[in-house]
Amino acid sequence: MTTAVNGQKNAAYPATGTLHAAAEGETLLRGVLVYGEGEPADVLVRDGVIAEISDAGSLTPGENAEILELDGQVLLPGLIDMHVHLREPGREDTETIASGSAAAARGGFTAVFTMANTDPVTDTPAIAEMVWMKGQQTNLCDVHPVGSITKGLAGKDLTEFGMMAASEAKVRMFSDDGKCVADPQLMRRAVEYSKGLDVLLAQHCEEPRLTEGAVAHEGETAARLGLRGWPRVAEESIVIRDALLARDYGGRTHICHASTEGTVELLRWAKDHDIPLSAEVTPHHLTLTDEKLESYDGVFRVNPPLREHKDALALRAALIDGTIDCVATDHAPHGSEEKCCEFDKARPGMLGLETSLALIARTFITDVPEGEEPQDWRFIARVMSERPAEILKLPGQGRPVAVGEPANLCVVDTQAGWVAHGHELASKASNTPYEGETLPVKVSTTLLRGKVTCRDGEVNN
Ligand SMILES: [Zn+2]
Question: Which of 86, 93, 313, 438 is packed most tightly, with the most Cβ within 10 A?
């Protein structure tokens, strides 16, 4: 084990725990388009670091180098997902750190943050360290544990942020995700505590009194289908409350899975006032609406719920203009018995890790509606890698594709359309809401500190 890569860059940032050693030897990525721009280039990775970048065909690697022919594929920094549920410990029947890491590698991710709503809850250093260590042993993706804000997610007593932050897991983000920290006094104390430690608080914004029994977005569709509604105000009232707490008490607060047009307006106001608030949006809130519920298929139940077209449009515009910082999947595996049942009995949540890059590329690059401006691959690098690394102050990830940087990379084949099928995913669960949909691009290759973790769908354990 070595910490050679960690700490070289962003030295001012809090360190991670001990990382698995970088891969030794050379790998040549031949003929890639760096950020999808310019002429094809050769990128030589040596001992876990980008050693050379030069015109395609101009680099001669050593005898034992692994050569990947990537003719015209797009090279990006490895993706970072700051919101997943890998279910271990407690629900290893639906996902494990190993299976979730495989899904992450296939999706182009080199770091993920797994939420604390496990069984037992990640509310002590021992559990956080177990998660971190298992991720490093699996060595497909850095799996960072998120610590809970309150003990047992009970919403009563704060956990020991300091002890978890100082543990081998170096916990840098705290969240009760799945539940909202609804008590404003408790949230205020959490903000003050987090500020002293320079850790991030991530809020699942849901005023629980307004969502009792709710299973679908409160609107015309839910009314027609006879489903109990989850109103936008339940999210927005917590967003504005936490923005004001951040304004008055500082700290860094992050809004999980923003889902409404009103949330976008509040975030815009907060950013205009230099309030230290960041936000994420999921691929499903960008691409799906509550009309999907017509089928009463439990796969479309998610929390917060799928909303209306105008919300999705506002979320897309906010991601483009930076009001929303980044994409996070909220990857939430569930067994089929938890999804194939009456809609209001289905567990909320959807898979996300293996489809997210393709969905974001489809929404913002390849299938942009007429009249909207397509984005470029730099945009995807920003919202799926660079911004999450900045928000989390995560060293060694989300770095530029440049000589001397750690080789945490992902390669996208823009000619490889594919059809999403839940049973073909590496995840133990299969609850994708995109079953049978054609997606336009595919991650072909992922590298973690120089190790090829995934190549054409094959995960390299
Ligand atoms: Zn949540």
Answer: 86
DSSP 136: H
Q: So what's the pLDDT on residue 14?
A: 73
Q: What is the mean pLDDT of residues 351-367?
A: 98
In a domain, 454, yes or no: no
pLDDT at 12: 57
Higher pLDDT, 10 or 62: 62
Mean pLDDT of the chain: 95
Binding-site residue positions for substrate? 85-87, 117, 303, 334, 348-349
**Alpha carbons 392 and 80: distance in angstroms, whole number:** 10
CA of 303 from ligand 1 middle (Å) equals 6
Give distance in angstroms: CA of 143 to centre of ligand 1: 18
Report the share of the chain in percent with pLDDT over 70.
97
This model's pTM is above 0.90: yes
pLDDT for position 4: 40
Beta-carbon-side half-sphere exposure of residue 194 (alpha carbons within 13 Å): 31
| Tally of domains within the chain | 1
Give tens-digit pLDDT for 306-319. 999 999 999 999 99
Distance in angstroms (rounded) separating the CA atoms of residues 287 and 215: 19
Catalytic site residue from 248, 330, 344, 367: 330
Residues making up the annotated binding site are 83, 85-87, 117, 177, 204, 257, 303, 330, 334, 348-349
Expressed in angstroms and rounded, the spacing between residue 304 Cα and the centre of ligand 1 is: 7
Bond into 304 cis (ω within 30): yes
Mean pLDDT, residues 284-289 taken together: 98
Give the residue numbers spanning the domain of 129. 9-14+78-408
- 337, two tokens: 């018995």
Q: What is the pLDDT of residue 15?
A: 87
For 68-82, the pLDDT digits (tens) are: 999 999 999 999 999
Question: CATH code at 201?
Answer: 3.20.20.140
Cα–ligand 1 centroid distance for 393 (angstroms): 21
Please confirm, yes or no, whether 330 is among the known catalytic residues.
yes
State residue 173's pLDDT score: 98
Q: Is residue 340 part of a domain?
A: yes
Which residue ranges make up the annotated binding site for Zn(2+)?
83, 85, 177, 204, 257, 330
Three-state DSSP state, 28: strand
Instruction: Return the H-helix or E-strand segment holding 405.
Output: none
Q: Is the CB of residue 190 less than 8 Å from the CB of residue 148?
A: no
Tell whether 50 is covered by a domain. Answer: no
Q: How far apart are CA 152 and CA 157, in angstroms?
A: 9
Neighbours of 195 (CB within 10 A): 17
Taking the centre of ligand 1 as the mean of its atom positions, its distance from the CA of residue 260, in whole angstroms, is 14
pLDDT at 11: 44
The rounded Å distance from CA 232 to ligand 1 centre is: 15
